[in-house]
Amino acid sequence: MFLTFVSVFMLSSFVSPNSSVEIKHENKIERKIIYNKKKHSITLSWSAFGSSGNYIISRGGSRLASEFVSVGSTSKLTFTDNKPNTDKYENYYKITRNDTTIIISLENQIFGDNLYLYDRKYEKVETARNEINSHFGAIGLGGANGEWTTKRQAYYFKANVDGQTYDVGGSGSASSVEANSIELGFYSHIGGLGKVPSDVKLGSIFTRPHLSGGANATCTFWRSVENVEVMRDFSWTVSQSTSARRLLIDSTSKYISDVGNTNFWGSGGFIADTHYTSDRANWGGQQQWYTRNTVFPSGSGVMGGSYNMVWQGCVNPPKADDANSPVSTTPIIREKPFLFIDKDGEYKVFIPAWQKDRVGTSWTTTDMGKGNVQDLVTSWYVAKEGDTDVEINAALKSGKNIFFTPGHYSLNAPIQVNRKDAILLGSGIASVTLEPTEKNTWGCIYADDKDGIIIAGLLMDSLNSTTYQVRIGNERANADHATDPILLSDITCRVGGVQSKNIQIQASMQINSNNVVGDHFWLWRADHGSQKGGDARWTRDRCKNGLIVAGDDVTLYGLFVEHYQEYEVIWMGERGRTYFFQNEPPYDAPNQASWSSQGGKVDGYAAFKVANTVKEHQSIGMGSYAVFTGTDGNVNKKNGFEIPNSPNVKLEKMCITRFAGSGNIQNVINSTGGSTATGAKRVALYTNSEGIQPFDEEFILPKGESYPAYISMEK
Asked: What residues act catalytically?
């Protein structure tokens, strides 16, 4: 039987008992769905399909329910179910005529076609695992082509009932056939819909690298998992732009591939707000990793990692050594909001509260933690692929927050976050993209200088030239947000990789506002892609800076910035803090003359540059790794890091090394620390006057751009 899944997009049928929705799709079947709350009835209607006979209607409790029962037939194009299941969301209707079946449900109406929901109350234990793994193989999410697909997907699991789990059973390592693991691919997300992680019990999760026969995870990007319990093996073999949050992990956990017997390495990664109950995890073979507010069992065993491992606010972290940097507390943090189903059966979003000096997780086995709850239907606009910047900005202006279902959102103008406490929350690595129009020269997201803004779970892509991809606060922002900071969580900016035309971007992100907290960024000028590389990439994919911080009191956790063509991070604000920084310089600088800083006096550009005007700054866990492969063989970088010789400007636990190519980073910081020509070099602490202060220089920041005319921005 041929199944045609068609989504219905409006939310209005859940607001008023007798409201209706209708959406027309070219070459698709029209349908309506009305939920009458007072009568507890559901009315369906659709446009004609099939050649003859009645329409047969059956109902199941979920999309992939094991049983669908017949509830009627009709020759008309409408049908009312007067005795639906008690929970209105547990009514999925198949309407069949001849060899065509359509499915209508309230949940599909809310979330569209790219967000998949599973319910063990109605489904077999293997159902979710089999469908997710079929996607992994069928739509290219597991191989090299998956890196550049525009497909996006999220898999959400409803809470277990009556002791059931989503574990199909299995044994051995997650990479083995016997483990029966869920394999999560590119641009995919797993989320639990319970209040606490133990509400959704999964068996084994595996992220399969596609390089070096499965042993090399350095390109295993763009996937996430949150708010679930993993009962068996959690093999999170990943690198950048991979987020694991709010997890309960019961058994073996490892962060490097065990496929094959050689070349085990990765370049990850990020885990936060997680509790390991029985085993201390193993990061052996990972170049670096950032772990925040996580609980480990006691023990003294080595947990792996080669160069830069930061453990912040963790319980029982590894002991400090050259590679490991435990930091006792997290000074200020707000966890990323997440979707869940509340006790009233409605979809809600939990917005965690700000916390200071935190150790351990934000939740317990019985308490979801401090925060507030918002009803998805009444307080949010649920965006779906195909929605425009006009629709999204209008929803923001009307007071709605935005939940981006998985998709590739093409914009003619930036999303403009111009009110206090507004939230943008992406699911399934939703992409906000400057494509295909030539009109958008402003960027992907502009946020005003307002209290409490949250932007989370989004990938910003650019197929057009622009000033910024993300800008937080205007160029003269000066408000004090200390009591309600701005949160940026799980943010990826990508320059290049797919487009064939030349683009030029000044900076991927500029933070002008004060009191901003960033919790996991990957800012990436692509070192590889579907287009020709080498010198062609140097001139085609142009971007000067990954991050410019002009605001004061900005705190960043888990900062990954790579391959930009000038200073990758410029920090101009006071009292800035960064906990973990990972960097590779641009691979493709064609020669030294094209890649020299400070008026040509200095080879290359420092990865992390604190301006000489800054009086107070502190960062810890800093890595920069030389990979000069697309060059004439004579390109070097003088300093990994550059800061002023000021007594209150401190960088701790810095490491440089060379991974590939003939060029070197010649000093760790300010002309001190040694060169990668003779191996990895480390500086435990740099403070005032130990090295040569960089030349004074003026940073020419991007000029303010006009906003699109159709929105009158609040000043």
From this structure: 584
